[in-house]
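Figure S7 source data.
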Amino acid sequence: MRADLHVHTTASDGTLSPAAIVARAVEHGVELLSITDHDTLAAYDALQVPSGLTMITGVELSARWDRMTVHIVGLGVDRASPAMVQAQKTLLAARAERAARIAEKLAPLGLDDPLAAAQRHACGAAVGRPHFASALVEAGIVTDAGEAFRRYLGAGKRGDVGHFWPEQATVIEWILAAGGVAVLAHPLHYRMTMSRLKRLLRDFVAQGGSAIEVLSGRQNADEIRRTTLLARQFGLAASCGSDFHRPHRYGPELGCTGPLPAGLIPVWERITP
Ligand code: MN
Ligand code: MN
Ligand code: MN
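Tokens for the predicted manganese (II) ion complex:
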């Protein structure tokens, strides 16, 4: 089964529309797809699914764990459930508050109305740091998004305003209440020590989390070995996702992760259609 269970569209910070993502997934041989935009299920409104492609409803929710931001993917959630309505409302409000704070911090750089500029780049989606990066590039303050993050938006820089996300326990509760499976996204992206990551996973499991992205984007063999061990040690089902945001020569492609390591329980076996 060629599965890709972590993908973004223009409903959050991806550059392809939901329809374009579905078409591209089919082109790349994906049989099982979940669109998992940041904090919104809007991509599923009026989405047409071609025959030959199975879709699982998904969302990538931002959460707080031990003063850090972590991402929890909810797979198989009922998007009309009160829990998902509440989750999207809370997180969109958190994003709006954060965007307003970032805009305040960037104003002294000489950007004319940073919030409006970022909103223009967001094209109706919730404003995030990549949109501020685009605004900084457009204004000629930096030459590319990488420089925008290095100088102004990354950790410890002026645009790093902290986070406003709900606690991990709350986010997992929402996913379970919506009938979904809670998946820890890209476990190696947090740059935690192994002991800290294990502490996170102990909490995650105690709070009702039951799966982990064993395959995320383009991981090397050593990374896959580490995430596989974590799945085994914590009795977690295994998920895989490209975390595709945009077509890019060096970036991950839809369906790029390859098959799950043998002996792990694929997360889709835990999802009730
Ligand atoms: Mn993103
Ligand atoms: Mn993420
Ligand atoms: Mn993502």
